[in-house]
Amino acid sequence: MEFQDKVAWITGGANGIGAGVARRLAGLGAKVVVADVDAERGKAVADEVDGLFVTCDVSDPRHSEQAVAAAVEAFGGLDIAVLNAGIATGFGLGDDFDAERYRRVMGINLDGVVYGVHAALPALKARGGGHIVATASMAGLMAMPMDPVYGANKAAVVGLVRALGPTLAADGVAVNAVCPAFADTNIIAGFKTALESAGMPILTVDDVVDAYLSALRSGGAGQCWYVQAGRPSEPFKFPNPPGPRTASGERVALHDPSQEG
Ligand SMILES: NC(=O)c1ccc[n+]([C@@H]2O[C@H](COP(=O)([O-])OP(=O)(O)OC[C@H]3O[C@@H](n4cnc5c(N)ncnc54)[C@H](O)[C@@H]3O)[C@@H](O)[C@H]2O)c1
């Protein structure tokens, strides 16, 4: 069993993609901690996979710390952190702007990942290394006119993962992201019919979970695995931005040339 005796903490594990990852990892031998604000569904998923449920609002850093502590207490450590909890935004920046909901969505979709990494790191390092995989989105790789704030926080997760990847790889912690297009979960329930009418193919949860497994098996770090209908998932190849030049046109020694176009 590939993940025998590995311990996985999954935020947003009560439904959708997180529940799919919980089922798959448990089926491959992992011990799973489902962390969510939805206690009813979270307990059901945890019972189904013989795991543990913890109530966890990822926008509160203490909750993530408590969830990691619960994983360590119940199963002896932590090997995989799946930072997946997320919500849609549903407003623009005009008359429809909602400042309170803005803070809420940033608190979950971005702060929740930051707090999750911070909470998981000591336990992962105590095991000599491990994995962190965040659920970003295609909305973090391309423009998302229908939900600009969601695009902004998912792009921030992409930037965070790319920056952390090389740094934490040195400690044996592989940080990667999975970036799904539209997938068949509660988050798209309000506009699924419109997507289908427009001819947009919708991913299954299993399609997204497959990409999770690819990211966990890859040995890479700082990678953002896109998940698009009808094509295999791969790490997105980011175009390199132009690097700095001195006044006389030479490369700047402090700058890493592999990072520039
Ligand atoms: N389904 C898609 O089309 C799609 C596409 C790209 C990215 N994503 C991302 O995938 C992730 C999972 O979403 P999903 O599609 O499975 O939707 P979902 O609504 O089925 O699942 C999201 C889960 O997050 C939980 N959650 C919400 N707020 C929380 C909080 N404050 N603390 C802890 N848990 C919380 C919910 O209770 C739910 O169980 C999200 O980050 C979402 O942005 C989804």
From TrEMBL:
Bias (Basic and acidic residues) ranges: 252-261
Alphabetized InterPro entries for the sequence: NAD(P)-bd_dom_sf (IPR036291), SDR_fam (IPR002347)
Region (Disordered): 235-261
Superkingdom to which the source organism belongs: Bacteria
Pfam families linked to this entry: adh_short
Keywords: Oxidoreductase
Alphabetized SUPFAM superfamilies for the sequence: NAD(P)-binding Rossmann-fold domains
Similarity remark: Belongs to the short-chain dehydrogenases/reductases (SDR) family.
Official protein name in the record: SDR family NAD(P)-dependent oxidoreductase
Source organism of the structure: Saccharothrix mutabilis subsp. mutabilis
